[in-house]
């Protein structure tokens, strides 16, 4: 089984960190193919960054189809471009947020998602509501810019731990979901410290993707996720046309 793990931001070190976490939980025989978008923002913090990141991510998905992969994982907790990717691909595509909250729901009645900045908290809270977990989950921001998670001297880990402690004390959280791909390497240590399940979206997405492939299931191509209709795209977006128009 070949899983494409695609980072929609352009920071290679974050891709490499996520790939290590993915390979640590992947089943024997599962190959993790890590890819970094070649165009877009260095990190994704809010709706604007996410919108700008989507074209580069879709280009990577499209260009790597020839080599073949059995499922794709969008490696951003904002589930950046997930719906568009499901339209583009003929294989299952999963996102970190959807995978993580679904996994947490198996483990706890109430859980808290701890993410980075307030602007990301609002976006993720909307996703949690959309995924039907609004009554069970609270989303918290720890005031950490994403790229500070790549800097061990930034104090980001201390901020994250403080927010987790508030979630446990104030929210009655029975489990914690780490709301950023850049936190993926911290899950097991934090679980050991706090004694509650700590769900990492990267690991959860790998296991969800493996399950779908093993079950022989893929994205429905009826209605919502039907392949894009052929039409002309103009200007700098010309290369993103789903397929060339017939003469």
From TrEMBL:
Domain of life: Bacteria
InterPro entries: Asp/Glu/hydantoin_racemase, Hydantoin_racemase-like, Iso_Racemase_Enz_sf
GO MF term (any one): amino-acid racemase activity
Top EC category: isomerase
EC number per UniProt: 5.1.99.5
Pfam families per record: Asp_Glu_race (PF01177)
Known catalytic reactions: a D-5-monosubstituted hydantoin = a L-5-monosubstituted hydantoin; D-5-benzylhydantoin = L-5-benzylhydantoin; D-5-isobutylhydantoin = L-5-isobutylhydantoin
Family statement drawn from the similarity comment of this UniProt entry: Belongs to the HyuE racemase family.
Name used for this protein in its record: Hydantoin racemase
């Amino acid at each position: 089984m070949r899983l494409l793990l695609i980072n929609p931001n352009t920071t290679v070190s974050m891709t490499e960190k996520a790939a290590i976490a993915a390979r640590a939980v992947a089943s024997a025989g599962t190959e993790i193919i890590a890819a970094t978008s070649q165009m877009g923002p260095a990190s994704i913090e809010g709706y604007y960054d996410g919108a700008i990141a989507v074209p580069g991510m879709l280009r990577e998905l499209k260009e790597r189809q020839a080599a073949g992969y059995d499922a794709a994982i969008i490696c951003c907790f904002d589930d950046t471009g997930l719906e568009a990717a499901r339209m583009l691909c003929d294989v299952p595509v999963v996102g970190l947020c959807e995978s993580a909250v679904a996994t947490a729901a198996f483990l706890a009645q109430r859980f808290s998602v701890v993410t980075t900045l307030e602007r990301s908290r609002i976006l993720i809270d909307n996703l949690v509501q959309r995924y039907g977990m609004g009554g069970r989950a609270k989303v918290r921001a720890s005031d950490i810019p994403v790229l500070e998670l790549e800097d061990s001297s930034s104090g980001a880990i201390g901020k994250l731990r403080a927010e987790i402690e508030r979630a446990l004390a104030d929210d009655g959280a029975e489990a914690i979901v780490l709301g950023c791909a850049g936190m993926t390497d911290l899950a097991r240590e934090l679980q050991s410290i706090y004694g509650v399940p700590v769900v990492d979206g990267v690991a959860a997405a790998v296991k969800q993707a493996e399950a779908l492939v093993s079950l022989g299931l893929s994205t429905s191509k009826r209605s919502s996720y039907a392949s894009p209709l052929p039409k002309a795209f103009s200007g700098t977006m010309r290369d993103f046309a789903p397929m060339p128009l017939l003469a």
